[in-house]
Amino acid sequence: MSVALLVIAIGYLLGSIPVSDIVAHRAGAPNLRDVGDQNPGFWNSRTVFSRNQSLAVFVGDLLKGVLSVVTAQELSDRWQVWFLAAGASMIGHGWPLFARFKGGRSVLTWAGAAIVLSPLPAAFCLLLIVLFWAATRDFSHGVRIGVVLYPFAQWYADGVWWAAATGALMSIIGVRFAMAIGIDSVLAATPLSRWRNNATQDDDPSE
């Protein structure tokens, strides 16, 4: 238990390092929370920072997940503890202690953890991303495909429990995206909401 708490604390603190803030401060660039989609992460940095500065954000956010899991692996041989470290780093990135708990969506931090947790599935998905990008020149959709397929590849390589644990990690990303676009927008996109809207329109006496 003490080891698990230690890796959670380390993971959270690593995840809380505000990489984009550090890069923006050194470059004299705007705070990413005030521009674009107001997400202090790599995707938003591409519209504000130079290529090298955005690359620094990419590598920094990726390393949060990598270092958290590697540290956990050094301290424990239990895979459950490794996933706790990954989740802690993602939570730290999403709700960072050093940035007033206003962070990013934890996608790259998750990716860094995923690379260490299951290298072969991660390499397979990375290959798919590269091939899709080479064929279509559409990198963003390639990334989405790779992210969606990763837990299935992990299920095949490492078993159902590892894939389920990855699903729990990915739910953190889902929460951050839901918070970014607003809970009302999320609810409005659900099938139940659309059914209610259609029912209301069908009952409209003006028609």
How would you describe the overall organization of this protein?
The chain is an all-alpha fold and 207 residues long. Helices cover 76% and strands 0% of the residues.
Topology:
Elements: H1 2-15, H2 19-27, H3 42-45, H4 51-75, H5 79-94, H6 107-117, H7 119-136, H8 139-158, H9 160-181, H10 183-188, H11 191-202
Helix pairs in contact: 1-4, 1-5, 2-4, 4-5, 4-6, 5-6, 5-9, 6-7, 7-8, 8-9
Question: How would you summarize what this structure contains?
Answer:
The protein is mainly α. It is 76% helix and 0% strand. Helix 4 (51-75) runs antiparallel to helix 5, helix 4 (51-75) crosses helix 6 (107-117) and helix 7 packs antiparallel against helix 8.
Q: Approximately how much beta-strand content do the residues carry? A: under 5%
Could you tell me the number of beta strands?
0
**Gross morphology:** globular
The helical percent reads over 70%
Supply Rg.
Answer: 19 Å
Query: What's the pLDDT, averaged over the residues?
Result: 87
| Main beta-sheet strand count, sense and barrel state | none
